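Protocol step 6 of 9: fold each sequence in the batch and record its structure tokens directly after the sequence line. For illustration, a two-sequence batch is reproduced in full.

Sequence one:
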Amino acid sequence: MTQTTRRVSQSRTVKPKRRVQPKRPVRASVLDQAVAALPGGAATARRIVGWSLTAGAAAIALALANWFGLFGAIGVAAAEAVGAAGFRVEQIEVTGLKRMDATSVYAVALDQRSRAMPLVDLDATRQKLLDYGWIADARVSRRLPDTLVVDVVERDPAAVWQNKGRLMLIDSGGVLLDGVQPGRMPRLPLVIGEGANAQEPAYRKLMAAAPALKPVVKAAVWVGNRRWDLVFNTGERLVLPEGEGDAARALVKFAQLDGTLGLLGKGYERFDLRDPSKLVVRMKSAKPLDAEDSGEATGGNTAAAMLPDVG
């Protein structure tokens, strides 16, 4: 018996070979390009990073030193060393002064905790200068190596203020400038009374309503902190009403009356225009008129005249 052997052959599956893909070129990042552009390449970049870390640590250390008060001491010592090297205030140059005593400016400029240039406090010096009435503005600067420059803007005197026996120059805003000797009165308007210095702008506005009277007004008296009396060179006194508008209208009317009737220099002592409908006139008498008198004239020779319609 013949035995047949059957061999079963198994077919093997052959996998296709993968095609080798060409490698794509790797693009350099912006950072890599920057590093490559540096002289020395990566080594330079490492040094820069090291310096940056060192600078950051130094900044933190300085902040801590400042917090604990150490930085100020180190800075002062360094500034003093700069001063010792020749950067020290030796000269003061002042410009803009016309009337104020320069000695006061020099004294303020030299009043420093240290004359080493880095330690001169320019802002504090300027603020001290502004405390002087004469100085409207100031600028303080350094001119190395050894000069402090002070540029001053002075106020202009506009009037003399008399109060409680004291005479003071004031500017157009009423700021006190300097004392005045009675024998050396400047040719400026004289305002008298408590608070009259602050009313100087209002007085100039009042006189602008009747400029023809300005040359003949000797003084203006601020009465009761509410109104003006005008004293003329010829000795008469004009009593004006309260309120800027009413006072200006009364002054204009008086200027018109004086222009037509010639009231000044005729022996009158007082004109009262507080009532807009009439002019109350007082003749000179033996009794002197108090400079602060603000009441109605009583006694003596007085007369009231109805005012004509003028203007």
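Sequence two, same batch, same settings:
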Amino acid sequence: MDQLLRQISAGAVREGLWQPGEHILVAVSGGVDSTALLHILHRLAEQEGFLLTAAHVHHGLRQASDLEAAAVRQFCGSLGIPCEYGQLDVRAHKRQTSRNTQLAARELRYRFLHETAARIGAVRIALGHHADDQAETVLMRVLRGTGPAGLAGMRMRRTEHEVDLIRPLLEVPKSELANYCVRQGLSWVEDESNQTRDYVRNALRLDVMPVLADYNPELREALCRLAEVAAQEDDLLGSQTEQHFERLVRSEKEGLSMDRAGLLSLHVALQRRLIKLILYYLSPERDSATYERVEAMRTAALDDTQTTWRTDAGEGIVFLREYDRLRWLRSNIHIASEGLEYAYEVSAVTSELVIRETDPQTIFSFDWTDAGGVKPGSRYEAVFDAQALRFPLVIRTRRPGDRMAVLGLEGTKKVQDMFVDEKIPPSQRGKLPIVCDADGKLLWIPGIRRSSHALTGLPGGAELRIRVQFA
């Protein structure tokens, strides 16, 4: 075994790239990197006990694609490796999604690789990215603006859709791969599109990196070293963030939430990471968690002067600051629940009412007792003079202009103002039940205020005791 194979085998053991008996799907374009990758894995497969299948994608963008496909099939045949072939309509996908050509091609290519891996039972997809690719990736991300996670560049192993994407050549310069192919007598296809400056990566490789290399001849090694250090520190912070997520974040019907104090207790770096992790749990589109969006949510949580706040967090997620509670909700569910209205009639013989529209469900129980009974034990219990009530009672959501003659106050008070005084989150105000009589007179908002109407204490007669519980 030559030195390059020993290096790749050692890296595979260190990073856990494969195990004996596993089936690996190898993406082969026909270029020098993927040609070297397939040949190297072919040589390692027998002694390390894994199976190989190649996969080639015809993007339909260049005339040379037919020649590349034929060359890959011939190469796979010479090694006795089966080859899966896919022809993609990148132009159609580009029109449908408004993606640029590179992104449209990448989406279809990875979709084909994942579908093929699932069909043939492969648990790993091997990609031919090398050290030069890693250096270019890190530099691109620096220019675009990135954090430590972005500086980590590409990972040698990353799980995606229950399949590991592995990059066995990530620590190997492209020049070494070319030398390997020459030594082994292998031919490869040069992609002429790699010389066009229409793509940012090509322009960086052809124009920018040679200039930077004048200042640091070991530019590639420096950028790859930066990626390695950033990846290790990112893993550490990521692990800590996961622990804080388990400790602080609560799942609810509409999304995720946490106490403001929990977020404020963390270092600013962990605050940002925790917000991003919450967004990742609610949406698979990781690119939507931009720095600007994350920082806007973090700043809103820190602000002591603005106690309620709402913003679009991207990808169908709404962020709400509701006093000391922070919530991330799927916007379609949240909008539907905000517009929810209900109204139930309660007759003089009703004993129980369950309101399923609230979360959790609210259970009302109605008991008739003699006057002079036990006083209410909590704000979720109220007693009324039955003779002063007009049935049927109505339990409903709030309506514009609702006012109550609050016990202990003169005149009436807006329900909206009572919600603000009690710091009821705006997202919950449209769901809370309000007890009214047949004339529309507001009697009680459980847990908040009782009206001065139908007070008890008169001798004789009967009382209606209403209790609220939550399921």
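Proceed to step 7 once all outputs are recorded. Observation for sequence two: The longest helix spans residues 219-248.
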